[in-house]
Amino acid sequence: MPIDIVVDAMGSDKAPEPEIRGAILAARQYDVRVHLAGPEDILRPLLRQHLRGAHLPVFIVPASEWITMDDKAAQAVRTKRDSTMRIGLKMVREGLASHHGPTPHGHGHHHHGPSGPGKAAGFFTAGNTGAAMATAKMVLGMLSGVDRPALATILPTVRGIPSLLLDVGANVDSDPDNLVQFAVMGHMYAQNVLKIPNPRVGLLSIGEEDSKGNSITRDTLPLLRALPGINFIGNVEGRDLFNGHADVSVCDGFVGNVALKTCEGTAKLVTVSLREALKSTVTSQVGALLSRKAFDDFKKRLDYSEYGGAPLLGVRGVCIVGHGSSNEKAIMNGIRVAAEFAQAEVNSAIEAALHTA
Question: What domains does the chain contain, in order, with CATH numbers?
Answer without folding.
Answer: 3-146+314-344 (3.40.718.10), 153-305 (3.40.718.10)
